[in-house]
Amino acid sequence: MIVADFEPVSLNDFPGRIATVVFIHGCNLLCRFCYNRELVLKNFAYVDKTKEFFKFLKENGIKSVAITGGEPLFHPNIFEFLYELKGDGIETKLDTNGFSSKKLKIALDEKLLDYVAVDVKGFSDEEIKYITRCNLKFRYFADTYRLLKKYGVPFELRITVWRDFQKETLKNFFMLIDSNDKVVLQKPIVDKPLLDKRFESQLKRIDFERNVEVFMSYFPKTKVRNIL
Ligand code: SF4
């Protein structure tokens, strides 16, 4: 039981590839802005589509898969899943929240990943704790970042704009990253029920364009993506 669902074809989820997107059930965080309730909350029952997913890949000769969630690295069977994909000669892109660096290291050691997209939940311990509702630290994200740099796997850092950027906390982030890194700003989803319903009105007040301008004044190469 690992595949909650899959999207047969996507042009937007694996840079440079036409890919199948697979949604893995379960997550270790409870982000206030999360709109994937059915993947994150334990009380949502789902029909396991693992067999159907692999059958689809084989029958259609799919060679690229974007793995998302939930948090794929949180699933106990994630390595078996990745080995099976790699055994079938499939390129893999992983979306991760950046707080499972030990498992990420194993996946990189085993050459199971071809591209990684890492969320940046916040730029300080306080921001990360507030938004994820878990006792996590900025330095845990930094561990993940350094790992990706060390292994040289292509990656991007994805930032959902859930509050106005603060000059002081942005400084931590820019001191860590490299000017050649790919950084993507994402507009939060506000038209679906969020994990924290009370957060919806706060999100609607965020001036996304203004925050993009602020961010770009420090990091002009930033890309912007609207989640569909
Ligand atoms: S947004 Fe947060 S809670 Fe939702 S799937 Fe991603 S990491 Fe998990």
Automatic annotation (TrEMBL):
Keyword field contains Iron-sulfur: yes
PROSITE patterns, per database record: RADICAL_SAM (PS51918)
Limits of the Radical SAM core domain: 13-221
Pfam families: Radical_SAM (PF04055)
Co-factor requirement: [4Fe-4S] cluster
Record GO terms (molecular function): catalytic activity; iron-sulfur cluster binding; metal ion binding
Keywords tagged on the record: Iron, Iron-sulfur, Metal-binding, S-adenosyl-L-methionine
The protein's name: Radical SAM protein
